[in-house]
Amino acid sequence: NIDKGVILYLEDISVSFDGFKAINNLNLYIREGELRCIIGPNGAGKTTMMDIITGKTRPDSGSAWFGQNINLLEMDEPAISKAGIGRKFQKPTVFEQLSVWHNLELCMAAPKTVFTTLKARLNGEQRDQINKVLTLIGLQDQRFLNAGALSHGQKQWLEIGMLLMQKPRLLLVDEPVAGMTHQEMDRTGELLTSLAGEHSIVLVEHDMDFVRSIARHVTVLHQGSVLAEGTMDQVQSNPKVVEVYLGE
Ligand code: ADP
């Protein structure tokens, strides 16, 4: 009985490591097209939650659905990625020796091996897809540069572009603005905001100013479950949230 507009539905998820409850009856619903920020002190369970969504960690109990009928708990990591969930880790992992264009080309849906992909002639539609992503991530002018020559921020955008090549419906993004300049942060905010709508995005972020600038809906995790949800103003004035952050 999952609401039609819900893309991700975690219900009563728990997982323990050596008897320690890292996730404790977690409930989370992400709506189609939403940009949701997840915040919370260190150890709150943010990474473990992302690991459960991508199939890297299996919960001890609960259920996890993607869309109306994809049971994430019955799938392994490659199948979940193929079903349309893309994850970007904090550190960019681009192919430094390859051009920006080739980095995107390699990540195109239905990947073959590196060599057959780079040798194959792209059709018009495939070129259009790469050009569209290059424009979105603002790297059209850098497309023939080696990825190794990009700035830290540009590498992060390229990696988001590499995920987009696989046409994910849900993007999980881990602290994208760590180490970025203010200008790069603004540009990243614009990029994520422009991707929401067509994509659903779950963003784990520590930078509160950045969260405030982009998110309408924030979830605060604490001790493996949801402590508060709402706008940034609502959660920041919640006494339970204040207490947790002061204690950090
Ligand atoms: P966050 O990302 O919010 O900082 P984590 O999900 O990384 O939190 O961690 C939640 C808790 O679970 C922490 O106390 C952490 O030490 C513990 N934890 C996470 N992964 C493991 C693991 N593989 N083995 C043991 N403990 C773990």
Describe what you observe in this structure.
It is a single chain. This protein is α/β, with parallel strands linked by helices and 248 residues long. It has one domain: 3-Layer(aba) Sandwich (Rossmann fold), CATH 3.40.50. It contains 10 helices and 10 strands. It has helices at residues 46-53, 77-83, 100-106, 114-119, 124-136, 152-164, 182-195, 208-214, 232-236, 239-246, and strands at 6-17, 20-31, 35-39, 61-66, 70-71, 85-88, 170-174, 200-204, 217-222, 225-230. The strands form 2 sheets. Strands 6-7-8-3-9-10 form a 6-stranded mixed sheet, with helices on both faces. The chain has a 4-stranded antiparallel sheet with strand order 2-1-4-5, with helices on one face. Strand 7 (170-174), helix 7 and strand 8 form a beta-alpha-beta unit. The chain is globular and about 55 Å long. The mean pLDDT is 92. Adenosine-5'-diphosphate (ADP) binds at residues 17, 22, 40, 42-48.
Strand and helix layout:
Elements: E1 6-17, E2 20-31, E3 35-39, H1 46-53, E4 61-66, E5 70-71, H2 77-83, E6 85-88, H3 100-106, H4 114-119, H5 124-136, H6 152-164, E7 170-174, H7 182-195, E8 200-204, H8 208-214, E9 217-222, E10 225-230, H9 232-236, H10 239-246
The structure holds adenosine-5'-diphosphate (ADP).
